Amino acid sequence: MKHDPIAVAVLQNRLRAAVEEMGEAMLRTAYSQILNSSRDFSIAITDAEARLVAQADHIPVHVGAMPFAARAVLDAFPSMAPGDLYLLNDPYHGGSHLPDLTAVVPVFHDGAVRFLTVVRAHVSDIGGATHGGYNPGATEIFQEGLRLPPILLGQGGVLRPDLVRMLATNTRLPRDFSGDLAAMFGAAELGAQRLAAMLAERGAAAMQEGVAAILSGAEAHARKTVASWKDGVFHGEAVLDDDGHGRHDIAIRATVTKRGDSLHVDLSASDDQPVGFVNSSYANMRSAVAMAFAFLLDPETEKNDGAFRPLSVTAREGSVVWARDGAPVTLCTSHPGNEIVEAIMVAMAQSRPERTMGGWGRRFRVALDGHNPRSGKRFMWHLFHARPGGGASVNGPGWAAAGEWHSAGGIKFGSIEVAESRFPLFFARHEFREGSGGAGRHAGGDGAELDLVIETDRPVRANTAGDGVRHGSRGIAGGQDGLPHDYDVLRADGTVRPLATKEVGVVLHPGDTLRVRSSGGGGWGPPA
Predict the structure, then answer these.
(1) Across-strand partners of 122?
(2) Fewest CB atoms within 10 A around its CB: which of 90, 143, 147, 369?
(3) What are the sequence ranges of the domains in the chain?
């Protein structure tokens, strides 16, 4: 059927406006620092078949996995009603990792589900053995936090207060959790209202035809791009530092086959799943592959279900990229998510190097848990400052302090002044780490340096979760690797305590300084 291109473009932009408005609502109503300052959330709209229709520019590794969450809800609840409110986080039932809650709201018209609005947000705490949602000591998922397969959390557009209270009680910050949950469903309901208005105006048949045209257009653009790449079978590898339980140099291996206008990624040769939390859930693995593919496409190509139709994926259950049910996976959105992208980029540099980028910095997070003497209350703070550098490309140097592959600049470090006013912390230093980006025809972006002074009246506990102190950001197409991370604690008495990437219960005393030297991005092309 021939479509009016102007009408299709108008619909596409209205859908995009809806997801962007949902994102603004989420940002302005969320309670916790990780959401209202660092913006660790994402927004999407799917159709009734769980196909990605529209997304906002938030966190890439979230969005590629959200259709799996939508599908899990549709499978679990084949009979829905207007006003139903669904929630999940379980990595083995449509989720990525436990800290990422996903709210799903169906949109009805003429008695049938036509669309789903989806909001995924990383909450500050999800229970479990350690604060902050990351447990480097975990050997099974039950030690990581509260597991939620798809559940019906509310009806008639109203959340059940008893269920919300039960969930919040199982976290360390129940007020923030409840507020963030309300913000998620508020944003999802706003999107549902915008879609309902479009359906009332256009009718379901016209909307479905328009969406089909949008997806087909994205597919055509993607296939045209892929067809311009060199055919062949290409291999790439990326390596994790360790799993936190004594196993080192865990390899992610990608075999990428390019034929005509299609691309197949095979991760089956990746190492077996380790004991620790660096395993990936299936949805997260698929999202990481889709994220790498999206980075290779033209920026103007809409990243929806149509754009990913040229891509197919093979993986092996029981490997680090697709762990068996029960394995810990909390670090997966970062690692091995970043390494999946990196392995694909290394492979594709042999086909179309000018489409690839140098490696972006790896994630090395710190979560602080303590008592705030100003408020007299417990506080929890997640390190999103001092971001690592982005990778360079054929177009120029990498962006300094831009973050990691999986966020690609979507996560912000927030205002230092606001952080100092909300938490008992003093940013004595926060600046670029000059020379940390890998050399190349274009250098990787510099990381950052942070000196953070603890201003509490009693000890604070810190957990670390990350990678990249042994392996720096990968140089691509002849570029050099960026410098790896270097974190430590300068004690008030002058002694220095190095920080590993996977530790639990590190005690920081009043007056101690957390010193962060984050990694630079990988260079692109041989240095001059």
Answers:
(1) 100
(2) 143
(3) 5-218, 357-528
